[in-house]
Write a structure and sequence with these properties.
This protein has 217 residues and is α+β, with helices and mostly antiparallel strands. It is 24% helix and 27% strand. The protein has helices at residues 35-45, 59-62, 65-72, 84-87, 90-96, 168-179, 198-204; strands at 2-8, 13-19, 25-29, 48-53, 76-77, 116-119, 122-128, 137-141, 146-150, 153-154, 157-158, 187-190, 196-197. It has a 6-stranded mixed beta sheet. A 5-stranded mixed beta sheet has the order 1-2-3-4-5, covered by helices on one side. Strand 6 (116-119) and strand 7 (122-128) form a beta hairpin.
Length: 217
């Protein structure tokens, strides 16, 4: 699986184009805005985009999903239905930031923990990781050993929990109990900033490093 990151919006959110190298089929993950930039990468990669995937419902990740879905004639998949309140209010979220092209979106398919999504010959495992938002999901591809984690985990930090229905304890539990078991060698693509590995974050991330917790936690 080949991943191309396209930073979009004033928040420099990492929209990702994931492409199956065997079939050329692809998906766009978290198109928050700047559709011209996203479509230029799609063209340069000669990717056949078949779907749009959302990790969660915040504006910088989902604000342009409805417009891109219409332009490409593809469905929107995910996140978990607990983020429906955010996806339905994307236009209102956008207005607060002066983004008048953000639009509400209703996914063709909601995702649950344990679901899978196929992108060509690649299979993404869906992991429900609430905390940053209640319906946040992570996409993990075991063959490439990569995860697209949205705003759950960052290089050296974790997602905010001071936004509506955020929950810090749930966020930490999601990371430690659902992501760490995937293995230290997993490379993850966060919603903002550079990539890292779960192993590095377990050693060095001040919020979720192993040394920050009791051995029996």
């Amino acid at each position: 699986m080949h991943i191309t990151v396209v930073p979009v919006t004033p928040f420099r959110q990492n929209c990702s184009l994931i492409r199956c190298e065997r079939t050329g089929e692809a998906a766009v993950v978290d198109p928050g805005g700047d559709l011209d930039s996203i479509e230029a990468v799609i063209a340069s990669e000669r990717a056949e985009v078949r779907q749009i995937l959302l990790t969660h419902g915040h504006l910088d990740h989902a604000g342009a999903a409805a417009r891109l879905a219409q332009r490409l004639s593809v469905p929107v998949i995910g996140p978990h239905r607990d983020d429906a309140f955010l996806l339905g209010a994307l236009a209102e979220q956008g207005a607060r930031y002066g983004w008048h092209d953000a639009a509400a979106v209703e996914p063709s398919r909601w995702l649950d923990d344990g679901d899978t999504v196929d992108v060509g010959a690649c299979t993404l495992d869906v992991i429900h990781c609430p905390g940053h938002t209640p319906g946040h999901v992570v996409f993990y591809e075991s063959t490439s050993n990569v995860a697209l984690v949205g705003d759950v985990l960052f290089n050296g930090s974790v997602g905010r929990t001071d936004l509506p229905r955020g929950n810090y304890r749930a966020l930490v539990d999601s990371i430690r109990r659902k992501l760490w078991p995937l293995g230290e060698s997993v490379t993850f693509y966060p919603g903002h900033g550079p990539t890292s590995t779960f192993g590095w974050e377990r050693k060095c991330n001040p919020f979720v490093a192993d040394l920050a917790f009791d051995a029996d936690d």
